[in-house]
Specification:
The protein is mainly beta and 172 residues long. It is 9% helix and 48% strand. It has 1 helix and 9 strands. The strands form 2 sheets. It has a 5-stranded antiparallel sheet with strand order 3-2-5-6-7, with no helix packed on it. The longest helix has 16 residues. The model has no long low-confidence stretch (mean pLDDT 86).
């Protein structure tokens, strides 16, 4: 009987020693960052300025980005594509929609963000995240003219590794 108890104790102890911790990715782990834009007043360039009734749609997408459906904002946080070297958005200010959700008036600028992608290993549980290097944002005002007067990168050779800081300043 003593040998049986000793054997069971040994088996139980060994089974606990061979267990591994759960491979869960903590919420605090940095993930693929978004592109952060702050809006400023073109006439008083130290002053933040809201974009009124902003409406943001990604190219080849019919769904408006969450949080940017006729809102007044002074900052955009936009997801970047990890399967291509550019992402394009239609950004409309002073938007008016009809009953079917179609834009009837407003001024639409087309924002194209180009970059080089770099996959960075985070951990076994979290896998990889993508960072973006040599980021450049360009604005095309289309036929209705630009509402964004000019853009300015936060720094040269912009690298986006997190979304806790502003990456671009847009003046309107």
């Amino acid at each position: 009987m003593k040998h049986l108890k000793l054997y069971l104790l040994l088996v139980t102890t060994l089974s606990f020693l061979t267990c591994e911790r759960d491979d869960l990715c903590p919420e605090t782990t940095p993930t693929t960052p978004s592109f952060v834009i702050d809006f400023y007043n073109n006439n008083a360039q130290d002053s933040r300025k809201n974009v009124v009734d902003i409406y943001v749609i990604g190219q080849d997408n019919e769904e408006v980005l969450t949080g940017y459906n006729l809102e007044n904002v002074n900052q955009l946080i936009l997801p970047l594509r990890t399967d291509q070297d550019s992402t394009t958005f239609n950004i409309t200010s002073n938007t008016v929609l009809d009953d079917d959700g179609n834009i009837t008036s407003g001024n639409t600028d087309i924002l194209t963000i180009t970059y080089a992608r770099k996959d960075v290993y985070v951990s076994r549980a979290c896998g990889y995240k993508t960072t973006f290097e040599n980021v450049v944002a360009t604005i095309d005002g289309g036929t209705d003219g630009n509402w964004v007067i000019f853009t300015e990168a936060a720094n040269d050779n912009l690298i986006i590794e997190d979304d806790t800081t502003t990456h671009y300043f847009f003046y309107h």
